[in-house]
Amino acid sequence: MSDFDYKSLLKRIWEDESIRKKESDERFVVPKADVFYEGRTTIIRNFDRIVTVLNREPDHLLKFLLRELGTAGELNGSRAVFQGKIPAQQIQSRIDEYVETYVICQECGRPDTHLIKKDRMLFIRCDACGAVRSISTRKKKIIQKSSEEIEKGKIYEVTITDIGKRGDGLAHLGKYTIYIPSAMKGATVKVKIEKISGTVAFARIVT
To answer: Is 145's pLDDT higher than 60?
Structure first.
């Protein structure tokens, strides 16, 4: 076999590997949440498709979303149902956060990972590069990165997820819990921040 043939063969193998890597990278496309509203509930119609692509248990993603969105909900067949009207953008943001925390490898950026539990701690192991990291470390970084500072006098759109002991509506925005008088549970409203104390804020509904 001539040098030309040998080099051509090596080039062909290299090109084939590049194609395979490109196809592997492109195959991971997380479906956007297909959100619609039914009465006072929010439904993700394609929840089953999302967890299939992520290769994670439906209950794990659901518990994460319920905690981060500050609401109650359940699985209903292929759908996930949440109490209250939650903005689609807020849901998608939390799903993206889940992917970054529980799916993507921090070292090589690939989604070929699985979760392992050891001594009550949760780790993510990459099947592509072999890297292992703790979930808690990654979550702290994301919380610090995504924490939104609200400002007094500014207007925000929030969803009332609960009613406080004094009858005020409760909403969550980033790290803040917002108290809103005369607000109905499940309603999505625009509010003006009147006072901020640590991670607690007080607001009123504006039209």
So the answer is: no
